[in-house]
Specification:
It contains 13 helices and ten strands. It has 420 residues and is an alpha+beta fold. The protein has three domains: 96 residues, Orthogonal Bundle (Butyryl-Coa Dehydrogenase, subunit A, domain 1), CATH 1.10.540.10; 114 residues, Beta Barrel (Butyryl-CoA Dehydrogenase, subunit A, domain 2), CATH 2.40.110.10; 163 residues, Butyryl-CoA Dehydrogenase, subunit A, domain 3, CATH 1.20.140.10.
Length: 420
């Protein structure tokens, strides 16, 4: 379904190239991997998926769709943030396309904050190799029970100054792309002043994954194993030099929120790409499948289900684009981002669920990607802030109880308003 949005000419052109890349280069290879699934172990599938992404990256460069969000000086397309949305949606139609174009989490968000908050030395050491695909990264913020989760202020991991080094101690899990000790470096958020309120006592650090004291405890098995994976990690007396701090001292939450704000919107678009492709799969199935005397595509109730999906997807796109334009124009859009994230996550889950139901046994089988999509989109209502955390933020605006608390004044003065 072709609907018109206020996207720039460049955004539309790159989105068109991306759709052609996905349809012509990625989906045929994706189908090959799906066809081999019954004979492959989980480890083999993840390895084969990573190998496919590496092969496709060269093709993505040739077709001029690699790194649309990456500045031109680092080898990307240097697109403005709002222009990325239709491109990310087309990339989201395949998990492998996201990796091939280098727009998958967590690298996409980590490149964003390294470019905006990193020093020149950090950019040369970490950002440029990350952009080139020579290294991988992880984002390590969430902690086990009683630690940092949706409420970032509950962070327990500490970093204490010792001479010209920081010593990091803490326990993290759900570290993005942490599986199997895969990342080359991690962005770690830790308390640097335990006497201060977490708003003004938390900093971010770049930590080499092979540093002494970094212990990869385990891969966390979970829904939506898409090749990214998450890990549980213990930081036991990890020493990093002073220049490893990313962004200002005590500005760790500002760095994290800077990363997460835009990342929530790009996540929305990637998952909406999954929803869009799910609708395409369901409609193709309905055109082929007959039951009770007619093609499924002639059954009014199913036609209405698909129409409902298109309508809600259109509304979600409009919300996300509005939030992105607000960020681009004002630098902040906390309320708009929270509303977009909740609405998009619920919409995408409902659409993929409908498409699974429409396709029946083929929907729950894994010859088609719908079952994999469903596992992945259900996770989206948890990651990047659970629905409830964003609804709490929305309620603050709705009830006009946004008064800054005394413990927040210093943070807001130094880094802007972090409230979510």
């Amino acid at each position: 379904m072709d609907l018109t949005y206020q996207d720039s000419g460049r955004a539309r052109k790159v989105a068109e190239r991306t759709r052609a890349f996905v349809d012509e280069e990625v989906l045929p290879r994706e189908r090959e991997l799906l066809g081999q699934r019954d004979a492959a172990s989980d480890a083999d599938r993840q390895r084969e998926g990573r190998e496919l992404v590496e092969e496709l990256r060269a093709v993505a460069r040739d077709r001029d769709v690699f790194g649309p969000q990456i500045p031109e000086e680092y080898g990307g397309l240097g697109m403005e943030f709002a222009d990325l949305l239709p491109v990310f949606e087309q990339a989201g139609r395949s998990i492998f396309a996201m990796g091939a174009m280098h727009v998958a989490a967590p690298d996409e968000g980590n490149m964003e904050i390294l470019e905006e908050a990193g020093t020149e030395a950090q950019k040369e050491t970490y950002l440029r190799p990350l952009v080139n695909g020579e290294v991988t990264s992880g984002f390590s913020m969430t902690e086990p029970m009683d630690g940092c989760g949706s409420d970032a202020k509950q962070i327990n991991t500490t970093a204490e100054k010792d001479g010209d080094e920081w010593v990091i101690d803490g326990h993290k899990w759900w570290t993005s792309f942490g599986h199997g000790g895969a990342p080359d470096f991690l962005i770690v958020v830790a308390r640097t002043n335990e006497d201060a309120h977490p708003y003004v006592g938390t900093s971010a650090f770049i930590v080499d994954a092979d540093a002494d004291g970094v212990e990869f405890v385990r891969d966390i098995p979970h829904m939506g194993e898409s090749g990214m994976g998450h890990a549980e990690i213990v930081y036991d007396g990890v020493r990093v030099p002073e220049e490893s701090m990313l962004g200002p001292k005590d500005g760790g939450l500002a760095v994290a929120q800077q990363r997460l704000g835009k990342a929530r919107l790009t996540h929305c678009m990637r998952f909406m790409g999954m929803a869009d492709r799910s609708l395409d799969i369901a409609k193709a199935y309905m055109d082929e499948r007959s039951a009770y005397g007619d093609k499924l595509s002639q059954k009014q109730s199913l036609r209405f289900d698909i129409s409902e999906g298109h309508m809600r997807l259109h509304a979600a796109r409009a919300m996300v684009r509005h939030a992105a334009r607000t960020i681009q124009e004002t630098g902040s859009a906390d309320l708009e981002v929270s509303m977009s994230k909740v609405f998009a996550a619920r919409t995408v889950q409902d659409i993929v669920d409908t498409c699974v139901q429409v396709c029946g046994g083929n929907g729950i089988g894994k010859d088609l990607p719908l079952a994999d999509f469903y596992e992945n989109v259900r996770c989206f209502r948890i990651v990047d802030g659970a629905d409830e955390a964003h609804m709490r933020s929305i309620a603050k605006h709705a009830f006009d109880d946004e008064e800054i608390k005394p413990e927040e004044v210093e943070y807001v003065t130094r880094f802007g308003d972090p409230r979510r």
